[in-house]
Amino acid sequence: xxxxxxxxxxxxxxxxxxxxxxxxxxxxxxxxxxxxxxxxxxxxxxxxxxxxxxxxxxxxxxxxxxxxxxxxxxxxxxxxxxxxxxxxxxxxxxxxxxxxxxxxxxxxxxxxxxxxxxxxxxxxxxxxxxxxxxxxxxxxxxxxxxxxxxxxxxxxxxxxxxxxxxxxxxxxxxxxxxxxxxxxxxxxxxxxxxxxxxxxxxxxxxxxxxxxxxxxxxxxxxxxxxxxxxxxxxxxxxxxxxxxxxxxxxxxxxxxxxxxxxxxxxxxxxxxxxxxxxxxxxxxxxxxxxxxxxxxxxxxxxxxxxxxxxxxxxx
Amino acid sequence: xxxxxxxxxxxxxxxxxxxxxxxxxxxxxxxxxxxxxxxxxxxxxxxxxxxxxxxxxxxxxxxxxxxxxxxxxxxxxxxxxxxxxxxxxxxxxxxxxxxxxxxxxxxxxxxxxxxxxxxxxxxxxxxxxxxxxxxxxxxxxxxxxxxxxxxxxxxxxxxxxxxxxxxxxxxxxxxxxxxxxxxxxxxxxxxxxxxxxxxxxxxxxxxxxxxxxxxxxxx
Lengths: 315, 219
Hints:
The structure holds two protein chains of two kinds. Chain A is mainly alpha-helical. Chain A has one domain (3-141, 158-169, 202-286). Chain A has helices at 3-34, 44-53, 65-84, 100-120, 124-155, 160-169, 177-193, 212-215, 221-246, 257-283, 293-313. The radius of gyration of chain A is 19 Å and the shape is globular. The model of chain A has no long low-confidence stretch (mean pLDDT 86). Chain B has one domain. Chain B is built from seven helices and no strands. Chain B is globular, with a radius of gyration of 18 Å. The A-B interface holds A 176-177, 181, 294-295, 298-299, 301-303, 305-306, 309-310, 312-314 and B 11-12, 15, 18-19, 22, 26, 98-99, 102-103, 105-106, 109-110, 113, 117, 129-130, 132.
């Protein structure tokens, strides 16, 4: 571990933190442009966060400590994952301290904490939102885990840096049937976990359809800022994870500064391209009926199941 | 084309036929299900063609072209015609809900792979590796026959069963003689055409092709 590795590790975390709200902003702008509106600047989410952070902290008297701690835990668990994933380079600060399975459960921790906080307020919408959120999380988790098994089988390890290095050494392996199937499954899981269409509509506050928004309804001021920031961060993280697992080109495998600069640029391009792509697809999608969401997630499960089957039996 | 690249394409075509089986089990729209069947037919034809190229049989390549025309173009068109004429566009109430039928599909695929292992062990090669997929496609066809009630999905299940059989045949024997292939394709076509007439009669008599209405005998 050199000084450069530590520096680039910190840089990676700071870059992700700085970019995450912009990614959300880019998605909103893309959507607005495709709908024929001008839309806000991509920097608008940062301005919203600044506004919220300056407000007074207001918490209902009826809540317990969980409600106050939840936003912090949500941001903290997400930040750990940010530091762990080799987005820019495989040699950074904390890479390999947690493997891919750990990453999935760290992200799930944030979902569970948020659901607990929503129940904590005792409002009808909070309970409804967390019950829906947990249903989706419980259905998405097996699909995500099986997809990860498929990817790990290819590399022979669930360590992220080994997976990336294996994929970089054998780019043809990325076009194999099992990788494509796993990619399809991870894409659906990403949409479900990040609360995007067609599972959840991030821009609506209609009582009967919202999932994520129903859970955070009771938050205000700096707490809301943390929750909003965490959801941007998670979205960016999921895009980054897809980029790392399925499009690993450009990720530095050495401590070379030039290679790492390439890594940063490649990461930015990948994340922004995915954000614009998802936003463009979302324009043409309607939200699925809640009772149809299990069908979509069952399909994701089948895709990752086939990926595992194929990598076991067709090798 | 080198053998390595050829087997790569073969893996993709075999995998695609399995995914199409699941798409047919997943979708509710009858047109989407027929489209999945068409893509599956095309991938079976591609498997036949690649095996023909690999073995160097011109006859097998011709047979593959025939399979492509019948399974990917003619039969799906006839089926879409049936859908438009009977005005039934959706599988409204499957006997078993979609997530459960997908999980049942996953179970049958595992069974197919466990059973197919012994077949592959007889003569392990990059081509015979795909034989369990053929078995899995057959079982998915069975599931469609069991779980769905509309006449069109029944036929799709039957044709998918046939696709699975064809897949196993192509992967193990590099294709049947052209005349057998021709006979099989014509049989299928006849079956589908007969169904087309039958479905129209059923609709005229009962107003829908829901098989639950056909359980009693009448004069």
